[in-house]
Every structure is written in C-alpha cells, then in structure tokens.
Amino acid sequence: MNTLNRIFSISLLSAAVSLGHAAPILNISDEGQVAADAAESAFISSLYTSTTDDFESYAAAADSSGQTLNFGSTVGSFSVDAGDVGTGGACNSDGFSCSSGLAVLNSGTSPFNGRFATSPDNWLDSMDAQVMTFTPNAGNNAAGFFMTDPNDAGGRFSINGESFLFGDIFGSSLGSGKVFYISLFDDEGLTDFEIHANNSSDGYGIDDVTVGYKVPEPGTLALLGLGLA
To answer: Would you say residue 219 has pLDDT above 90?
Structure first.
C-alpha cells in the first residue's frame, strides 16, 4: 500500500492456479480529491486505449421522469433490477422516486447531501439502489471511476463474481461526503461489475467513468503462466 492507492486481489495465486488466470484486481485511492485525481491520471496513463464518460452530455434529472432502470452511456450500460431499487429516504423526495431507478444529477437537482460531481457539473447517482450493475463495452479489461459518499459499511463490489467488502477496502475512510477513485482490472476482460449496498436509504454517486484495455503487468503474466502450467 502507498499514499496513492491500495491494491486488493481475492486469493490471487490460488485463483490463478485453479482458474487459469489471475483474479480481478481492485485499486482504491486514498480519500480526497487530490489523491483521487492522481489515481485517475495514473490509471488512464496505464491503458493502451481508453474512453471516458463524464455525464456532461446528458440532461440532469429534475424529478422521477428523468430516472431510468437502464442507463446507456458511451462506456457501457448501468442497470438496476426493479427488485433492487431503494425503498425510502431522500430518493423519494423533491419529485424523485426510489423505484424509478438511476438518474444523472447535479448540485441544483440532487435531493442528496454528500454526493457531487468531480468534473464539472453532472454525475450518475445510484438513487439508493441495492444493486447497480455496470456492463462495460466489449473488448475492455479495465475500468475506473470516481465514487462519492460510499457511506455503507456493509456494501461490496463484485467483479466477475469476486467480492470486495466496503468495510475491508475503505476501512476508517468510509464516510459521508468523501471521494475516492476506484479502478479494476481483469486480464480476461470485464463482463460483470456490481455495486451492492445493504441499506435501502443510502447510496453513492459515480463520475468520470473510464473503460479501456490494459496490457497485463509482468507479475500478472507470471501468475497466469503458473495457472496454465
């Protein structure tokens, strides 16, 4: 671990041996905009190709008519099943509806405190969904994004079926109104990334989502070779 980010992998060596490839790798920046910005720059510079969506090309929702269960973007699709929407709290205020799904928000339309854009105005909000699935465009093996207000100690990330608990990865930095940069990589490609919450009246915002292709580092390639052997 260093001051820029923390690296997490689920049973990296055993996964390489049993599955024939390295397990997904998750990087979390230190808390704060400066550390998050530095992590984003380092992540993008590590990619061979990349595309970023900052959500500025979409109109910010002013009420539930601007919400959707399936949001398509230039980097992939974000979706929420009807049974996994939020059920109470601020997502049911100011004309919004928890059951209507995701929304692009800005500071002028948001019913929440602690969630904000990292550049310059809009972000994609979970609207307190219990599970949000991000399906990156095909051909990418890495993704990164800013996450604001991940104030849910029982939440977790799921990357291609591997789980990373919020309490483990954010630790004492987990709290309302904070910002982190999260990046993820799987040498076999990213097909399934989920953000799970355990509180139906809490959520988060994400911004500046980047997807791209990253050439595996020598250490990952070595584990891949060991797995194949």
So the answer is: no
